[in-house]
Specification:
The chain is mainly alpha-helical. The chain is built from 7 helices and 4 strands; from the N terminus they run αααββββαααα. The strands form 2 sheets. The protein has a two-stranded antiparallel sheet. A hairpin with a 2-residue loop joins β1 and β2. The chain is rod-shaped, with a radius of gyration of 39 Å.
Amino acid sequence: MVINSNMPAQTSARLLSQSTDRLNQSLARLSSGSKITSPADDSAGLAVSMKFSAQISRIGAASNNIGNATSFEQTQDGFLQKVSDALNRMSELAVQAQDVTKTDGDRSLYNQEFATLASYIKDVSGKDFNGVSLFDGTTLNVTTDSDANTFGMVGVKLTGASYLAATAATIDSAGNANTALTAVKDAINQLAKDRANIGANMSRLSMYSDQLGVLSDNLSAANSRITDVDVAQESTKYARYNILVQAGTAMLAQANNMPQSVLKLLG
């Protein structure tokens, strides 16, 4: 029996230290809800999780961009619905102005309303959305994914030739009314194409938005499997390590008391 080197106490202290470290680690995981509380817990998993988290954030940004682009298109279409109403009324006035029972005086009254509606269309052509022109015909490149790939959203140009011809026309005479009707019909045809393009843009943006939502969900699930703690499993480990710490503490106390038996030999 020796007293300078108490090997049972040293072994008990080492095992108690290990159990204490594991207990603290388990406590940190349970309190944070994460399996990775330091890079040492899972260095490879941490690296993958960081990439997933960054991509999920970029997907969120792309989704916001798509949402704003959709609002832009909806605003465009809202104005164009009213432009459609104006053109429809202008075509009606152009036909009425060709009534043989009407005088040029009557036609001048029709022309006043026609000109007012044309002025409204010109006013709409200058509208913008957060400082971005709604109707200058510019193709806008919308970010559609986390790698900043884009979709070219075809623009609408209310200052195009068809619209300008319709808004510049007059119906103050039967001849002018006939010419105006042709111009307004061309503008209506162009408007139909423009609204169809807007509808196609919104449909595609909706698909991109749905795609990003599914991708974000899947990446979040994958990231969760790497980082999120299984509370039931970790609680079991915590209970185990807690018992080991208590038992190790008791055994270390016993090991430290063993050299006391040497005193009996000396007595």
